[in-house]
Amino acid sequence: MVVLATLAIVAMVSTTAVGLLNSAQAPGGVEGAAQKPPDAPGVAALGAAPQGMTYTDLGEQCDLSECFRPIAVTADGLDSEETIDAVYTHLIDEGWGRLLPEGRTDPDEVPFSESALSDGAVLVQASVQPYTTDSTAGLLLAHTVPPSPAS
């Protein structure tokens, strides 16, 4: 039993050492792998919410490659689809462009909730599923192309 435990410990230490050596030889080394991705765009990127609606910043969330920001949208008297339509129409009026799903070319055939918007730097994706119990819909903010660490 002691021999099996010793072999297991040696195998774990060896695997960890090989992983560290491989990451140290990779561009950026061990430190590059541990860097946090650039911060997500702030809710201010959306500007003021359309009349009768509020945006609630739910805080930045990050994975290994990028950070994003979920935003709860609350609108009195509207369902989630109507809320997304109102927010997207408002942002398009402010100069944002619409991005259609791959393979789709006619914007009249794609509901706003199935498309995204971009101002060239920030990407907005809507969700008909509210992010909180008291919200109507959700938005997800991210960089259109993740910025370089220097920006």
Automatic annotation (TrEMBL):
Query: Quick check: keyword Signal in the entry?
Result: yes
User: Where does the secretion signal sit in this chain?
Assistant: 1-19
Task: Tell me the domain of life.
Answer: Bacteria
Q: Which terms are listed as keywords in the entry? A: Signal
Question: What is the protein name stated in its UniProt record?
Answer: LytR cell envelope-related transcriptional attenuator
Q: Which organism is it from?
A: Actinorugispora endophytica
Q: What high-level taxonomic lineage is stated for the organism? A: Bacteria, Bacillati, Actinomycetota, Actinomycetes, Streptosporangiales
